[in-house]
Amino acid sequence: MSEYVLQFLISGITVGSIYALVGLGFTIIYNASDVINFAQGEFVMIGAMSAVTFSVAGTPLIIAIIMAMLVTVLIGFALNLFAIKPAKGASVVTTIIITIGASIFLRGAALLIWGKDFYSLPAFSGEQPIHIAGATILPQNLWVLGMTVILVSAVLLFFKYTLLGKAVLACSCNSTAAQLVGINVGKMMLLSYGISAMLGALAGVLIVPITFTSYDAGVMLGLKGFSAAILGGIGNPIGAVVGGLLLGILESLGAGFISSGYKDAIAFGIILLVLFIRPSGLLGRTTQERV
Amino acid sequence: MKRLSWFYLLTLVVFLLPQVFPDNYYVTVVGVFAAFHIILAVSLNLLMGYCGQISLGHAAFFGLGAYSSAILTTRYGFDPWLAMFSGMLIVFVIANLIARPILKLKGHYLAMATLGFGIIVHIILVQTEALTGGPDGLGEIPGLSIFGWAVDSDVRWYYVSAMCALVVVLLSLNLISSRSGRAIRAVHGSEFAAQMMGINTRKTKVTVFVFSAVLASFAGSLFAHQQNFVSPDSFSFFFSIELVTMVVLGGMASTYGAVFGAILLTFLPELLVVFEDYEMLIYGAILMMVMIFMPQGLFIGLGDKIKQLSLKWRNQYSSERIGPS
Amino acid sequence: MRINLVKFLSATALCAFLLLSSQTQAGDTIKIGSFLAVTGGASFLGDPELKTLQMYIDEINQKGGVLGKKIELIHYDTGGSPKKAVKFIKRLVKKDRVDLVIGGSTSGTTMAVAPLIEKFKIPMISLAGSIKIVEPTQKWLFKVPHTDRMAAEKVFQDMKKRGFTKVALISGNGGFDKSGRAQSLALAPKYGIEIVADESYGNKDTDMTAQLTKIRATDAQTILNFGFGKAPAIVTKNIKQLGISLPIYQSHGVASKKYLELSGAAANGVRLPAAAIVVADELADDDIQKQIASRYKKQYEAKFDQVSSFGAHAYDALMITVEAIKRADSLDKKAVRNEIEKTHNYIGAGGIFNMSADDHMGLKEDSFKLLEVVDGRWQIVN
After folding, report:
1. Is A214 in CB contact (< 8 Å) with chain C?
2. In whole angstroms, what is the distance from residue A4 CA to residue A1 CA?
3. Considering only CB atoms, which chain B residues are within 8 Å of C174?
4. C82 closest CB neighbour out of B231, B267, B303
5. Are B116 and A271 in contact (CB under 8 A)?
6. Testing the interface with A: which of C241, C259, C305 to mutate, by most A Cβ within 10 A?
7. Is the pLDDT score of C236 beyond 80?
8. Is C217–A1 a contact, with Cβ atoms under 8 angstroms apart?
9. Test mutation, B225, B231, B302, chain C, max C CBs within 10 A
10. Chain B environment of A89 (Cβ under 8 Å)
11. What's the confidence (pLDDT) of residue A287?
12. Neighbour tally for B107: CB within 10 Å
């Protein structure tokens, strides 16, 4: 069985990078507004579904993807403007319920627009498996991995080195102070929702040739993405990526070595253990409770 | 006894309802579900609303209670009441085991841990087919009988479940206005400050957690005997989220708020069922709008709105009197 | 003060609501109630079922109805949840006062309401697969789809013919999957087959290569995937991706064009048991089922999307009901039930039905055809 470890790892990293991208979306919105956006999974779904619709209507793949991203970003803006902003000052739990309501709303809308069917896109570079030392990987998996690396780096660079990125972070540290130094907090929030939506849409488009999509495909992905972000330490983009990859690998190894029926239970069990040992996640900042 | 006067009124209304509307589907069928949801929401509210600990895994304790009753009665021939008590005991043990490590976590991490716990329980329910019947569930669960009086009709179940719900509501009301209740609320307010006052916050949190879990288990056992059928589907994390929604929608830190939220979210799908494919969309929209416009919860929010309106009327009335003759 | 007002108003609202709802509807219609999994994980079952029922009830009503009365369909969406099914059955019987029930898209929802059907003494035709629905036979409960046992038998018969003795099983975590898996495990020895691997996945999973890698390491000669939804398509593609060249068998859960679409070229060579409706166009002209199956397929596809065997089950349930009502010449539940039980040589979209007091299903496994995917299309294997 040990000669199959490589295959298990590759499968795990493939699935894990999907979780990482979704988790990154959670992290960005959390960094900007302390809100866990439970509709993040729906961004992924809408990105994928829109891309399929545009592609089937005849637009070339690249254009379809860009248009799908635009649609999702607009929905992200709408979520912020109409659902989150009006509820400014509400407690954390209230905002969670709002995003849960938004997630249900978006799913209901997707149900009406696209029905209950499954959809797929053709793989970007064909379906010929690539063999590496006895394990196989699909070209699409490489796309997912590659884009994850690029996107994560872009996000990190954005937050660390650009003024705009730092402004967004300032809002989450202390929005009053940010306003006092002239940052338009409203616009920053809008931007972060837009970025998260864009990431989600991209993730959706990348994975749809492998995983297919349907109106409720966002639920599981949202859940796993959230778990990934928490495992890695919510608020830390690198944490989201590490969390995602780790989650995928745990699932794969659990299925491979212990039991495929219980693989999710094993993965979540390990997440619980990690949290017991490190209550702020693997790479999370230990929060200081102000008294 | 003024504090409990509204509770007595509630009890009266509850008992009269099936007499005024006999054989009404909404009273005897949906009402029973509402009663179970009330028990679950009130117990969750003790943990979330009063004690301030988020739990996204409450459905797991509900499920553990239901399945304990189901398995012990069908596979091992236990008497239903003994099975219910055993279920509560099992949940008591499990909740105690996980409470200590889990309650060290805060905020979103606690949410994740409870969510994870709920999912693990759900997976175990699905996978251990030989014991639980797997995804297709376990049927032929015997009904309940109280000293020979068989609870075998919808009306009887209404009275039994309503009574249990009222007892739980009473327990919650009494707990919160007691010294322990103040300790619980102090933990929510500021754990650090509570510790400074000499409250054993860890013990308080664990006690509330276990108490709410055992109440959920009680509801689960009732559920199993009322439905005569259990399946993992009813205990998924979606249901945990639904319970959280009931508590928040109704208004946290208010027992009546939790009751209100439970009743509302039990009846809302019944009303929305006519919208067929639009049901999900409308449900989501309602959730969002209620939380945006009444973030303290529907119960307190509606109360405030009505208070505003009544003040406006009173001002109008009094200004008419003082106005120019 | 404010809490009192809220309570008062809520109580008033509740009373008004209850008052309005307690008015029963009078009418001179035949009321057929249904609870189906129109949304949720089993929506590919419930959605075509509901569409079929609505379409054909409209057609029957346009032609004048049955016994001079129009049929009224009262339907609820369970989303696959047995808890909701129980609630809706009570609603259908107590509030809507239906004459008969067609429903339970899934075995879970059907089994949950089965005791209530017996208690309410109302005939019900289930659209679910598990053999437990009719074995042991219950007085008021019938079903029209082929059982999962029949599917397993059909598959194993073919495997035996091809000389396979070692089979790897992979299935999901849904009711359909687990039930099929249980039947497969129980039946395999009868055909001299050894199940050398027994893997499972979650129905929402996106990658099964870990499980398939384990299967590749065994000495399995063929793979049987008992599942439905999109997961079997992912399994099929993963098998191709890993370079596993073993023959693949699927279950009737994926006898649909969508499975072919999603799996693409990887599906070529896959065999599965399916109702005649899936290959209505390829049936020989002298096949008894050809006429009904082709007609249903044409009508359904003209109005909706691709036909599925699940919608066909709803069609059969409806037609058997209508025929039984005609024969009983009344809506008396007992009479209708007796007539359903006497269904004889009824040619349906799913097969030819012959029910009896011991057989509330009416089909034998010869009503299943064995299909193979050739060049992206279904072909009947002889």
Report:
1. yes
2. 6
3. 135
4. B231
5. yes
6. C241
7. yes
8. yes
9. B231
10. 295
11. 60
12. 16
* Phi, psi of C229, rounded to the nearest 5 degrees: 85, -145
Query: What is A18-75 written as a DSSP string?
Result: HHHHHHHHHHHHHHHHS---TTHHHHHHHHHHHHHHHHHTT--HHHHHHHHHHHHHHH
Could you give the 3-state DSSP secondary structure of residue A246?
helix
Domains of chain C in start order, with CATH, are 29-147+292-367 (3.40.50.2300), 149-281+368-380 (3.40.50.2300)
Hey, what amino acid is at B158?
Y
Which of C204, C209, C234 lies closest to A220 in CB terms? C204
Question: Does the structure show a pLDDT above 50 at A32?
Answer: yes
SS3 call for C340: helix
Digit-coded pLDDT (tens) for B262-278: 999 999 888 888 887 88
In chain A, residues 135-174 whose CB comes closer than 8 Å to chain B: none
Number of domains in chain B: 1
Q: In tens digits, what is the pLDDT along chain B, a chain of 325 residues?
A: 456 788 888 888 888 888 888 888 888 889 999 999 999 999 999 999 888 888 999 999 999 999 999 999 999 999 999 999 999 999 999 999 999 999 988 888 898 999 999 999 999 999 998 899 888 889 889 888 888 888 888 889 999 999 999 999 999 999 888 888 888 888 888 888 888 888 888 888 899 999 999 999 999 999 999 999 999 989 998 999 999 999 988 888 789 999 999 999 999 888 888 887 888 899 999 889 988 888 888 887 887 888 888 888 888 877 665 656 5
Q: Does A115 touch chain B (CB under 8 A)?
A: no
Domains with residue ranges and CATH for chain A: 2-277 (1.10.3470)
pLDDT at C96 over 50: yes
Note the pLDDT of residue C12. Answer: 62
Q: How far apart are CA C196 and CA A160, in angstroms?
A: 54
Instruction: Decide if B279 is inside a domain.
Output: yes
The encoded tokens of residue C359 equal 């057989």
Q: Is C147 on the interface with B (CB under 8 A)?
A: no
CB contact under 8 A, B21 and C108: no
Helix axes A139-161, A163-173, angle to 10 degrees: 80
ipTM above 0.90, yes or no: no
3-state secondary structure of A254: helix
DSSP H helices in B228-297: 237-250, 255-272, 279-293
Residues 6+ apart with CB under 8 A from C357: C137, C341
C168: nearest Cα among C205, C196, C140, C134: C196
Chain A residue with CA closest to C48: the answer is: A116
Q: Say whether residue A220 is in contact with chain C using an 8 A CB cutoff.
A: yes
- Quote the domain boundaries for residue B100: 7-293
Give the tens place of pLDDT for each residue, B121-156: 999 999 998 899 888 889 889 888 888 888 888 889
Crossing angle between the packed helical segments A217-232 and B107-127, to the nearest 10 degrees: 130
Long-range contacts (CB closer than 8 Å, 24 or more residues apart) made by C179-183: C179/B136, C179/C107, C179/C129, C179/C130, C179/C132, C179/C148, C180/C129, C180/C148, C180/C151, C180/C152, C180/C226, C180/C227, C180/C251, C180/C253, C181/C226, C182/B129, C183/C131, C183/C147, C183/C148, C183/C149, C183/C151, C183/C152
- For residue A114, give the chain B residue with the closest CA: B277
CB-based contact A260 C217, cutoff 8 Å: no
Residues 6+ apart with CB under 8 A from A282: A231, A232, A233, A239, A242, A243, A246, A274
Question: What residues in B contact C19, CB-CB < 8 Å?
Answer: 21
Task: Assign residue B19 the CATH number of its domain.
Answer: 1.10.3470
Q: Which residues of B are less than 8 Å from A93 in CB distance? A: 48, 54, 244, 248, 252
| B-contacting chains (≥3 CB pairs under 8 Å) | A, C
Please indicate, yes or no, if residue B172 is contained in any of the structural domains. yes
